[in-house]
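Lecture notes, continued. The same structure-token format from the folding unit now serves as the input rather than the output. Read the line below as a description of shape only.
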């Protein structure tokens, strides 16, 4: 088998496009905008502080002060990351008097992290 310039990546001996396969895959490929949005979503999971906040919120709904205490971080740092999570629709909030309580938007968040954790522990 022929190798590319990257020695560990095999490639075809000849350039012979398999039109039936290419057409079938092209038909089911999601729209470019959806792929962009998916990539942006996964970027949110690229920060360990945000992952920690999500794990904290798995256990209980909490205000910023409580999350900061659990993680040993500043309220400002937690607030910044919560804003990113909120803008990505992973975290929602409600007001209880003067307190803002944060919680996971839905179970998809847990599923995404559970599957990621399962993958790295294989």
């Amino acid at each position: 088998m022929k190798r590319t310039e990257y020695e560990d990546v095999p490639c075809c001996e000849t350039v012979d496009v398999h039109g039936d396969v290419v057409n079938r895959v092209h038909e089911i490929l999601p729209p470019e905008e959806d792929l962009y949005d998916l990539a942006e979503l996964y970027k949110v999971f690229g920060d360990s502080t945000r992952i920690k906040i999500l794990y904290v919120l798995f256990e209980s709904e909490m205000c910023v002060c409580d999350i900061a205490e659990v993680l040993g971080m500043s309220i400002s740092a937690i607030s910044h990351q919560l804003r990113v999570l909120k803008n990505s629709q992973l975290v929602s909030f409600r007001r209880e008097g003067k307190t803002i309580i944060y919680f996971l938007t839905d179970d998809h968040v847990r599923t995404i992290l559970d599957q990621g954790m399962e993958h790295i522990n294989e």
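Point for the exam: Strands lie at 2-3, 10-11, 91-96, 99-104.
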